[in-house]
Amino acid sequence: MVLALAGRDGDRIFVVVGVLDKDYVLIANGRSRRVDCPKKKKTKHIKFLKEAGSNFAEKVEKSKSGRLTNLILRNVINEYIVQTMAESGETAKNAETAENAENQVKQEKQDDKFVKVIK
Asked: Which of 13, 42, 56, 119 is the most buried (most CB within 10 A)?
């Protein structure tokens, strides 16, 4: 799992689906960036969050096609967001879905930038 730091995908969570070389990786999230058309991103423009883990590999193996799918990516990212919320003391009731939580974090960052501009 990585967090995009720059570009139009900034402040969004992705999974690295490929490594091109030491400077570039391919990222996807199953929504705006699909598995069949991942985003080429410089490694200096992403922040490592967490390894996807063995649970991720099991989901890929258990899928009907045996391949990585957009649904698997979305589920893994949603699980990560819910887990992060639980660790920070928030409950899932505070956000209807993990996607809403991601949007809420993005909005808070935009509000912080707006406050800094006003000051």
From this structure: 13
